[in-house]
Predict the 3D structure of the following.
Amino acid sequence: MRLYRFLMLAYPRSFRDRFGEEMLLDLEEARREMGPRIWTRTLTELVTVAPRARWEEGMVKTKLIAGVFLLLIAGGGTMLVTGLGPDIRSAFVPLLILAGLVALMGIAAATSRAGAERTYAVEGRRWWWIPAGLLGLLQVAMGVGQFIDDPSSSNLGALVLFVLFGGLILGGMSVQNRVAGNWMIAAGALPMLPFVWMVGPPVLALVTIVMAVSDNLRAARRAPAI
Amino acid sequence: MRREPEDVTPLPSASFHVLLALVDRPRHGYAVMQEVERLSDGAVRMGPGTVYTTIKRLLDGGLIEEVQGPDPADPRRRSYRATALGERVCRAEVHRLAGLIQRSVLGRLAPGFEV
């Protein structure tokens, strides 16, 4: 049984916490009644059922999807900045469109109330709000600082955009509907990705978007699949 | 939002077998394994991994619920039973499968077969 307790590591942690003791009891009982035959079935399940449980748990899937999503966004944005356009505006256009689409998803989720029942008080996953909050404040500070330094009309436009996207992040953190809030945070962080030479902001944006998108993919996965 | 049996049917085979085992009375995991084997005449044999991953899905879907185990002093041993929704889903699935057989060639070969 010690061996099986060890082999149960193949199942996701939350699953083990909830059903691990019961599984051990059942195996013990089955072993008494059926003899070693139960081991064939149990060990087969370790390579057939356990990986599926892990996949359904979503840690592998959500991170993979979020990673690919980000790679496309960050890669595309960087290519636009470094290769296709003479200035940063060429990268902003597609990113602004994309951020607008993500924000629309957030609004749609908010109006449909999907995910409204989810609260972080229950789930206790909030550490990534620190980089997200920093990013929101940084965006507002960048817009204001740039305008104070050079109060031109183009910098006024930049101020409005920075405040808008920073506000999207901070607003996303304050709405109760977590699915909508996470999409708003991801949308607000997107325009910071092309600032690769500044290192800090795009890293904060990467972390923020990965976590916000992962969280929403986890929420989608929770829709019961029986 | 009220869920209807049509929202979750057709059920995967393992879910249907476990739900069938929990419709008449509460059972714990090992009793479910035995009941599934009995109901299927030994054709379906589940191990603890299959039983509990299926139980988890059914719990998440609201088709079964946890009840006090056979020994209240042992919190490790929990029992489960079908909810009202679970019973309706089970009935709908039985009707679906029976209708399938009735409409098939096998149904015509067995004219006395009634749903």
